[in-house]
Automatic annotation (TrEMBL):
Pfam families xrefs: Glucosamine_iso
Protein name: Glucosamine-6-phosphate deaminase
InterPro entries for the chain: Glc/Gal-6P_isomerase, Glucosamine6P_isomerase, Glucosamine6P_isomerase_CS, NagB/RpiA_transferase-like
NCBIfam families noted in UniProt: nagB
Top-level enzyme category: hydrolase
Species of provenance: Tropicimonas omnivorans
Pathway in which this enzyme or protein is active: Amino-sugar metabolism; N-acetylneuraminate degradation; D-fructose 6-phosphate from N-acetylneuraminate: step 5/5
Source taxon at top rank: Bacteria
Gene this chain is encoded by: nagB
Length: 253
């Protein structure tokens, strides 16, 4: 069965940030021991900044919250500045009252990535599953590091990164270093098990991907199109990211 994601087109990135932070705070308030699925990349940076501010102002507590990140580069030690471990600590974990041991990322240094992927799936299940999964979208329609062609029944596993993804993320690496060629990522099936999904898209570079996700067939060629198989997806985007959407698009209301 397919579903039309709830599409909220907001004036700008600030409004997207405010609404995303509000939704995260709401799930924490409504769900004792809430389990968050977290994303990296440039898009959610402002959301983490807002959550940090709200926590510092005493408006929000992460005590008892658990979190699982979508992905991590393979072969980068956690302390590497471009690892998603470092990103999450720098931008979020080290500034809020989320307890060490309650946040999780895939193990990018695993000797056996298949076993590490299996353990990550078990840990998510043992936590009771993800209440709210935050997602960005790649310019090629990827979610997590599920690149075009990723099977919809995929689970946490080792994947090869598309050349365009490596190029898009190269600026996050110190001069002269290129991003790793592989990563560990939650699969599409893992993501679809979250009880609620919130996808953020800002800026004109995401306009084609958003249109491809919402128009045409649901197909692994556009990984984000799998989200139309989920009954509780909210897209928060700015006007630039919405600029390629047609009025006839099922999700545009
Ligand atoms: O928010 P950005 O930096 O545009 O990245 C979009 C997506 O690409 C990734 O960074 C992976 O390349 C995801 O983590 C993110 O959701």
């Amino acid at each position: 069965m397919t579903h039309a994601p709830e599409l909220t087109i907001l004036d700008d990135g600030d409004a997207v940030t405010s609404e995303a932070a509000r939704m995260i705070a709401a799930v924490i308030a409504d769900t004792p021991g809430a389990v968050l699925g977290l994303a990296t990349g440039r898009t959610p940076l402002a959301v983490y900044a807002r959550l940090r501010e709200d926590a510092a102002a005493g408006k929000l507590s992460f005590e008892g919250v658990r979190s699982f990140n979508l992905d991590e580069y393979l072969g980068l030690p956690p302390e590497h500045p471009a690892s998603y471990h470092s990103y999450m600590r720098r931008e979020f974990f080290d500034h809020v009252d989320l307890r060490a041991g309650d946040w999780h990322l895939p193990d990018g240094m695993a000797d056996d990535p298949a076993a590490a992927g299996g353990r990550y799936e078990v840990a998510i299940r043992q936590a009771g599953g993800i209440d709210l999964q935050l997602l960005g979208i790649g310019e090629n329609g990827h979610i997590g590091f599920n690149e075009p062609g990723a099977p919809f029944d995929s689970r946490t596993r080792k994947v090869a990164l598309a050349a365009s993804t490596i190029a898009a993320n190269a600026s996050e690496f110190p001069d002269g270093q290129t991003p790793p060629s592989h990563a560990l990522t939650m699969g599409i099936a893992t993501i679809l098990e979250a009880r609620r999904i919130v996808l953020l898209a800002t800026g004109s570079k995401k306009a084609k991907a958003l249109d491809a996700m919402l128009s045409g067939t649901i197909d692994p060629a556009v990984p984000a199109s799998a989200l139309r198989l989920h009954p509780a997806v909210t897209i928060l985007c700015d006007k630039e990211a919405a600029s390629c959407l047609q009025d006839g698009n099922a999700a545009v209301r």
